[in-house]
Specification:
- The chain is an alpha/beta fold.
- The chain contains ten helices and twelve strands.
- The protein has helices at residues 55-62, 85-94, 112-122, 128-141, 158-170, 188-205, 216-222, 240-245, 250-257, 297-301, and strands at 6-16, 28-39, 44-48, 70-75, 78-79, 95-98, 176-180, 208-213, 225-230, 233-239, 307-310, 313-315.
- 37% of the residues are buried.
């Protein structure tokens, strides 16, 4: 069996604010709470869940924008915490990030040429004589015209800005790209164009994607495997077709039921009770138990572990569907 491109083992990220003026200890915020998973070369892993479930924090830890409180993250078998400065620089050439808001992620005071030259200088250390040709290649990859290099970010549409963000991510010739809600700020027609571009780039450059989204239709369109997150934990993990056709966890079933379908009445959808619990007060048992329509006494008392239910299909549930 081939070694995974990256692997997470029981990764946690906890945030604690400063003590109050009265000396009271502030509560801890459990953004990511014991996530284990792996992704192989050439795969697209979709991560889906409600806002605040920990998707973005998880992605930032993989690209070392956040450090885990505990647990292990490995890239090509090497623990990120054990890398020296030069190893981290080389690793950053192979792992890149595409942000949600394309315009705000680009420096408004710099031209597109200056923006795209940053990774070429700092990560690749490409000499000036080769950078010009590489800049033209990057724009061609994302289907933008060469004269755009001398313009500023405010001169572009949302879709064009996101293509520039993708070009910046491609500059260092990465193996893995994390995309955090990359099309959520775009019109539907532009979304389709960007998704098609990402699909073409993946095939042409043999890329691996981690695609984060709250939009189930988008995740189904782009992913090979899907992880469903709830309250900082992965509650279901399966190949795309299996998860969308035969979900095992009640939370996944609720998410799929909420997708608008022509002819489907709102009354026919599976309903959740209440709101997501606060990330400072995790329930002792299953994190979804307070809202689950199938919850029983065991769910309140005992936390389920993520385990294989059938080939390639994992769920953290005492009473799977």
């Amino acid at each position: 069996m081939s070694q995974p491109l990256f692997e997470l083992q029981n990764v946690r990220r906890t945030f604690t604010s400063r003590r109050s003026l009265l000396g009271k200890k502030p509560p801890s915020i459990y953004a990511v709470n014991g996530v284990s998973m792996q992704v192989t070369q050439g795969q697209t892993l979709g991560i889906v869940g409600e806002s605040g479930c920990g998707k973005s924090t998880l992605a930032k830890m993989i690209v070392m924008l956040e450090r885990p409180t505990s647990g292990i993250i490995r890239f090509k078998g090497v623990d990120l915490e054990n890398m020296d400065r030069e190893a981290r620089r080389r690793m950053r050439t192979q792992v890149q990030f595409v942000f949600q808001d394309p315009l705000s992620s680009l420096n408004p005071r710099k031209t597109i040429r200056q923006i795209l030259e940053v990774p070429l200088k700092q990560l690749v250390r490409m000499p000036a004589g080769k950078r010009k040709e590489r800049l033209y290649e990057l724009l061609e990859m994302v289907k933008l015209r060469p004269e755009f290099l001398e313009r500023y970010p405010h001169e572009f549409s949302g879709g064009q800005s996101q293509r520039i963000g993708i070009a910046r991510a491609l500059a260092a010739e990465p193996k893995l790209i994390l995309l955090d809600e990359p099309v959520s700020a775009l019109d539907v027609s532009v979304q389709a164009q960007v998704l098609n571009l990402l699909r073409e780039l993946k095939q042409a450059l043999e890329l691996t994607y981690v695609f984060i989204s709250h939009d189930l239709a988008v995740v189904e369109n782009v992913s090979d495997t899907v992880a469903v997150m709830y309250l900082g934990q992965i509650v279901e993990y399966a190949p795309r077709a299996l998860l969308f056709s035969k979900p095992l966890h009640p939370y996944t079933g609720v998410l799929l039921s909420s997708v608008p379908v022509p002819g489907k009445r709102a009354a026919d959808r599976v309903q959740m009770k209440g709101e997501m619990p606060g990330v400072t007060e995790l329930p002792p048992g299953c994190p979804f138990a307070p809202r689950c329509p199938r919850a029983q006494d065991r769910c309140v008392r005992e936390k389920p572990i993520l385990q294989g239910m059938r080939s390639g299909h994992f769920a953290a549930c005492h009473f799977p569907v």
